[in-house]
Amino acid sequence: MIRRRNLLGAGLLGIGGAAASFGNPQKAADLAAPAISRNRRRLNMVTTWPKGLPGLGRAAERVSESILAMSEGLIEVKVYAAGELVPPFECFDAVANGSADMYHGAEYYWTAKSTAYPFFTAVPFGMTAQEIMGWIDFGGGQELWDELSAQFGIKAIQGANTGHQMGGWFRKEINSLDDLIGLQMRIPGQGGDVLRALGGSAKALPGGEIYQALQTGNIDATEWVGPWNDYSLGFYREAPYYYGPGFHEPGASLAVGVNLKVWESMTPGEQALIKAACQSVNHLSLGEFTYQNAVYLNILKDDHGVQLRSFPDDVVKAMAEAAADVRAASGRDGIEKRIYASFEAGLKTMREWAAVSDGPYYAARELGSSE
User: Is the keyword Cell wall biogenesis/degradation in the record (predicted)?
Assistant: First the structure.
């Protein structure tokens, strides 16, 4: 009987509450409201990419769109192209000091902060797109990346991948190692270190400044990404020779960096949502670059007379030897040494698999092709 009275009492209280709210919409809304309020967030994202750039710029916008959709409008990310809020190479500092909430860019732009950063974008003769995803997600790379970035007050996540890149655009043909001596080229990260080791001069220019530098003769050559993005920036108008393979960036991973205080203020659910949005864009971008590069390669060849070239074998061999030294020099001690060791171990493991899978398959596919 006591339990029955309690149940009846609870029921009458509910009826009483409903009756009291009848004719009072505000009170009815309060009663219907969930117990936990859902907070709205408005964040800003600075990028290293020129405004309207397909592929890279679009990836940053897709991260924003995915976060908005997955959060049902509760997390809004405003994207700023390079130079709109901060200069492209100042994105890292802006997020680290809290003047911006997030960045989208290439981690090798921050080599001055740590020589280990290029390992999370691309290093010469390093990992392909699939391999760097494997190392970061399953080979301990993310944990090391977290440790490195936390030193600067940042949480970093994979946020796009261009796949294999081209070697670059050159005003003159590269027929021997002698042609690299004195060559001035836009090439950042460890790829630039390799060029310097072979007698060239490397510059790290943001995307929006490359064409003018090529046009005015301040540089003799440039690399950027691949046919799709390179076409949009018009490099073919200034340098007729398009070289491959892109030894310096076999699978360039791009990053979303979040101010660490902002990241730690998020709920686990919000953090999971941000990660999922970035993973989605990472997946989409690789497929998009793979397809669009194929389309635009034909446009460059057929409509603009671009001449494809391959680096001579002796040049490739010298680049590979210099690349091994450059990679090792970047990981001499501290966390840089641990990141280098982890990367090299992962690369060795996955190279053995690629040697019996992708490589032989590509060769077999070409052997069996009727074209």
Answer: no
